[in-house]
Amino acid sequence: MKTNNPLNIYRKTATTTASPGELVLMLFDGALRFMTAAEIGFQEENFARRNEQIHNNILRAQAIITELQATLNMEVGGEFSENLYRLYDFMQNQLSQANREKNIDKIKVVVGFVQDIREAWAQMLLQTATEQATVSVESGLGAKC
Question: 10 Å Cβ neighbour count for 94?
Fold first, then answer.
């Protein structure tokens, strides 16, 4: 049964206990994982399995990019959110073309963008956590002095 699979239990626990920022990071990781699986599909010799693996994994990556796009706060993010929204549109278009044409290069373009955004997001989370820890330590020291 799927619910007793340790990996599924871990994933469910990870997603239910993660902060919103960590969930976004997980989405980037998922998109990268599915695009990598699609790229691996190009090595499949059986035509039907090859197309199925590429197609299904591209669709999964596109679903994640759609979710990332839907979670953008356009009111607060302003021009940055608008630019990111357009970048996600570009990625969707590239993945659609990659799927139609079975073109690995278009997947690689999107992988590059997602990796860059993921790294920036991870760095932002790390910096925020460090700043919060510093404030907590300073608050604690101020109270004891």
Answer: 20
Domains of the chain plus CATH, in order, are 31-130 (1.20.120.340)
**What region does 78 belong to: left with phi over 0, alpha with psi -120 to 50, or beta?**
left
DSSP code of residue 49: H
- pTM: predicted TM-score of the whole model, two decimal places: 0.81
- The predicted model gives 25-35 an average pLDDT of 97
In this structure, the chain runs to a length of: 145
- The angle that helices 47-70 and 20-41 make with each other, rounded to 10 degrees, is 160
Distance CA 108, CA 35 (A): 8
Written as six digits, the tokens of 128 are 């925020």
Asked whether the beta carbons of 21 and 120 are under 8 A apart, the reply is no
